[in-house]
Amino acid sequence: MNYLVYVAQGAAVYRGEALYSLLSYFEVAPPLLANVLIYTDAPDAFRRVLGSRPDVHYPAVSTADWKAWRGKFDMPYMLKINVLEHAATYYPGNLLFLDTDTIWQRDPTPIFEQIEQGVRFMHEDEGTLKDGSPLSRKIYRRLGGREFQAGATQVRISPESKMYNSGAVGLRSQDAHVLHDVVQLADTLYATYCKPVMEQLACCTRFALDGPVQEVAPYAIHYWNVKVARPLLVKLFDEYQGGSHADLLARAHRIDLPGLQKTEMAYRTLPNWRRTLLKLVGRQYKEPRIQL
After folding, report:
1. How far apart are CA 108 and CA 30, in angstroms?
2. Of 150, 148, 164, residue with least CA distance to 213
3. Boundaries of CATH 3.90.550.10 in the chain?
4. Residue among 42, 41, 40, 36 nearest 57 (CA)
5. Does 2-222 carry CATH code 3.40.1190.10?
6. Which InterPro entries does the UniProt record give (predicted)?
7. Which residues contact 183 (CB under 8 A, 6 or more apart)?
8. Whole-angstrom distance, CA of residue 67 vs CA of residue 82
9. What is the reported pTM?
10. DSSP string, 169-198
11. How many C-beta atoms lie closer than 10 Å to residue 107's C-beta?
12. Disulfide check for 14: which of 8, 40, 141, 143 has CB 3.0–4.6 Å away?
């Protein structure tokens, strides 16, 4: 059994993103490829748009569970790891978690086939800590050469330690014991250097002990750097929730999140001196005004 897992707890913006991601999944995936698990505190908001689908489930989560799943440092990023542990217990099979700010572009059947063979997935290879993003390099300067406990294994943060984006995490439920190691390692990393991506570093570091990690990126985009669309998606699903899924998806596609992501990332990766120069002449990156 295949399961596609989302967490949409709290603000309405996460529900809007999740609905867009789900509609894009239903467009590209064959029927009955996977059951969808939506961990949310507002299931009726999804039912109003998706209707009553036999392949969409809303696991019951108590207030105490939501709080506990954020971990000892109260980090929302820990929700995905603990939700996957819960899913592995109650929905055994091939599990693929996706952040809400994702859009499916290709049929994910090959991903589930590889997960069934024991392959682990994360969203995208972001390079080594030493040569990756500015944040990765900062983490390496702070943690490089240090050793941490991951289950029964000592792991060392090295120049070649890979950082994979955790906008997607996939594994078999029978391998879920590694998630306990991820939680343990993440708690230690947060205690050492409290940055938002410590759960991500813990996950890819632990996964790498068992073999190469594969990427979901060719199949789905993760527009983590584009926040301008969030209120638009909330508005779309509030105002047009009675429309067909095809109409809702077409309206969401008009926002062109892939294009916005490329534009913002192109500016973000410019050398500092070029961004400073662009700001001086009034040509810095500005979030566009978008209408549905």
Report:
1. 9
2. 164
3. 2-222
4. 36
5. no
6. Nucleotide-diphossugar_trans
7. 71, 78, 81, 82, 85, 202
8. 11
9. 0.92
10. EEEEGGGTHHHHHHHHHHHHHHHHS--TTH
11. 14
12. 8
Residue 56, token pair as written in the block: 């969409």
- Which DSSP helix (H) or strand (E) runs through 105? none
pLDDT for residue 288 is more than 70: no
Q: Which residues pair with 220 in a beta bridge?
A: 104
Q: Could you tell me the two tokens for 3?
A: 């399961």
Enter the tokens of residue 178. 């590694």
Q: How far is CA 262 from CA 234, 251, 259, in A?
A: 22, 20, 5
In degrees, rounded to 5, the angle at the alpha carbon of residue 217 between the alpha carbons of residues 106 and 200 is 140
Encoding tokens for residue 127? Answer: 């390079």
36 strand-pairing partners: 4, 56
Among 68, 70, 71, 45, smallest CA distance to 58 is for: 45
146-160 confidence digits (pLDDT tens):
999 998 999 999 988
* pLDDT tens digits along 101-134: 999 999 999 999 999 999 999 999 999 999 988 8
- Sequence-separated (6 or more) residues with CB below 8 Å from residue 52: none
